[in-house]
Design a protein that fits this description.
18% strand; 382 residues; alpha/beta; 12 helices; 7-stranded mixed sheet; two-stranded antiparallel ribbon; 37% helix
Length: 382
Amino acid sequence: MRRTTVFLAALAATAIAVGSVGHAGDVKLPDTLVTTAYNTGTTGYSQMIAVGGMLKKRYGVNLRVLPGKNDVARLAPVKAGKAQFTATGSDSVYAQEAVFAFGGEKWGPSPVRLLMLNRGKGCTTFAVANDMGVKTMADLKGKRIGWVRGSPALQKAVEALLGFADLTTGDVQLVEVGGWAASINGIIDGDIDASITSSSSTFMKKMEASPRGVIHPPLPHSDADGWARVQKVVPWYVQGICTHGPGVPDGRQESIASIYPILISTTAVSDEVAYSLTKAMVTHFDDYKDGAPAADGWALDRQLYNFYLPMHPGSIAYYKEAGTWNAEGQANQEDKLRRQDVLKKAWDAHVASGPADFVKEWQASRAMALSDAGFDPVFTAW
């Protein structure tokens, strides 16, 4: 049997090679897979635990889920080869783009590859204490908003949602916290009024049961100017109908589609492993779809092939086999790979130039390289 070399995450950070395990059909996975995720108790972490249960039952594969409370903590094990995957959010885009924490000398553009995404029936929104009388995004002016240190993904989400109402972070009171869960607990404890969330998070039930309650203000799709401001900050946000989670008024509202988590690897993961994991998650979807809140968002018909990141060739091979890959996906794939190529060349040239102020000069050279290639830099300073 052909051997597959993989990295096992261990606390000692030791990489060792293990043999591939043979299974029914053409799903071939190693004995152990490792993914990072948001902290324990979050939707993403719970979903990966459920996926791990499926892999153990069907293939005898152990999926280790390593919680990380910020962007770097989730991506660093993948960069170091201690984890093959991360079930995460916008931080994978920032890693691709080499911005914020990923724009320093130790990082640079990451060759991230998307396997699958969860596009659930919840929404990306603010969890707002229901005792504040907030009904719209504009009502958040002057309120205390959770601000997670070391997490540009969550910080930019806050900026994007405030932007819908033409508000900035200067129009609210930012309350710094060490992790996302702390922001929700801060609302319950009365120290914070609102925080970014997925409406499907298990923490929303905790808020609902608290004396303060929870509500999610809508982002009406008819407000073109509001949506233009949102997508100027976070261009990968798309419109969605929110029907899942406590705090959704009348059980349905227009908002940002909850595309979380997204399952990411890098080019270090083989096509065989990416293909096999994708196929296993689709084939045995029924095994885990009810195993965690919003896990049904991993369904094959919920996948998007025009996301902001290129897909893994192994996953593309499965989608072609399933008959769901399309021309739009192929065009997007070529475009996103070209963007990564521009970023990599710009980074290599920047490093070789020996910049005096590494980050500041990278901000300028990165933006120029992308603009010259016909791409929107999105980020010009951080």
